[in-house]
Design a protein that fits this description.
Largest sheet: 7 strands, mixed
Oligomer: single chain
Structural class: alpha/beta
Strand content: 25-35%
Bound molecules: nickel (II) ion, manganese (II) ion
Distance between the termini: 7 Å
CATH architecture: 4-Layer Sandwich
Number of domains: 1
């Protein structure tokens, strides 16, 4: 059993068997966050890319918890200078850990950290507690979103719907079709005015098309995957 808790924007906490994976922990300055960087648990931190609304509190949480940070090589190199443990994957790379694994896969977006490190953004395919979750990261609609499910049967996908900086809720319907997960949770919307989106309409469109079940989670909302 794996529990997913939505923390706002693209941040999620995955827990199974006492292992806590924290993805894109943007909590400080996130108007939707309901937990603080001082209290969130983490055994491993994973980043889709280094934009501020994804990198977030990763360094502070890594320093407090000792959790290593999995990120693309250029971002990992910047973070290592902070004295924290990093895992420097590039696209296609897999990191194995107790209870699962995580693979960095392509996304169509741009990447620059707040400190100015250019990098290629990604998505993450994460296996924990026997469940496989595809976090698309920030991306436009593109056909290779269909590739992760060719290798691993997906249980859940986290799909951005906010538009402006990513695909909007209409392209996200086609993305859900390509991703081919039976269950979808929308992310990356309503945090700031430019990315306001009607998650209920997205749910209706995806479910009416028979593509997947959609669960709209309020920040701090949880589901069993
Ligand atoms: Ni971004
Ligand atoms: Mn973003």
């Amino acid at each position: 059993m794996t529990t997913l808790t939505f923390l706002g924007q693209s941040a999620v906490l995955l827990e199974s068997g006492g292992t806590n994976l924290l993805v894109d922990p943007f909590l400080t300055g996130n108007p939707k966050a309901t937990v603080s960087a001082d209290e969130v648990p983490a055994d491993l931190i994973l980043l889709t890319h280094g934009h501020g609304d994804h990198l977030g509190d990763a360094v502070a949480i890594a320093k407090r918890t000792g959790a290593p940070v999995v990120a693309i090589v250029e971002v990992a190199g910047e973070l290592a200078e902070e004295g924290i443990d990093v895992v420097d994957l590039n696209l296609g790379g897999t990191h194995e850990f107790d209870g699962g694994w995580a693979r960095l896969v392509p996304a169509w977006h741009t990447g620059l950290t707040p400190k100015g490190t250019p990098h290629t953004p990604g998505g993450l395919v994460i296996n924990l507690g026997g469940k496989t979750i595809y976090h698309l990261g920030d991306t436009a609609l593109f056909s290779d979103l269909a590739l992760p499910s060719k290798r691993d049967a997906l249980d859940l996908a986290l799909i951005p719907i906010g538009g402006h900086y990513t695909m909007d809720r209409h392209d996200a319907v086609e993305a859900a079709r390509l991703v081919a997960a039976p269950h979808v949770v929308p992310v990356h919307y309503d945090t700031f005015p430019p990315i306001e989106a009607d998650a209920g309409a997205f749910k209706q469109d995806v479910e009416d098309a028979g593509i997947a079940k959609v669960t709209v989670l309020a920040p701090d909302g949880s589901i069993e995957v």
